[in-house]
Amino acid sequence: xxxxxxxxxxxxxxxxxxxxxxxxxxxxxxxxxxxxxxxxxxxxxxxxxxxxxxxxxxxxxxxxxxxxxxxxxxxxxxxxxxxxxxx
Length: 87
What we know:
Elements: E1 7-9, E2 16-18, E3 22-28, E4 34-37, E5 44-50, H1 53-61, H2 64-69, H3 75-86
């Protein structure tokens, strides 16, 4: 299926965008490892966020990421997301 036709919603701004233009954050269902990759194929709880610093800050400020993934506050998660954003 064409990647540009799959639409996902950003958890911070609620805008609908093609999946390829968002960052996917996944909590692996077996290991509970958090994977931050735009094109990950892991199965588990996932959320999408825009490639925008403001959206990332809002998602952490409102603790949306932690609620959706059902995890505790995690400071290194923000650093992982920023590393993907810089690439």
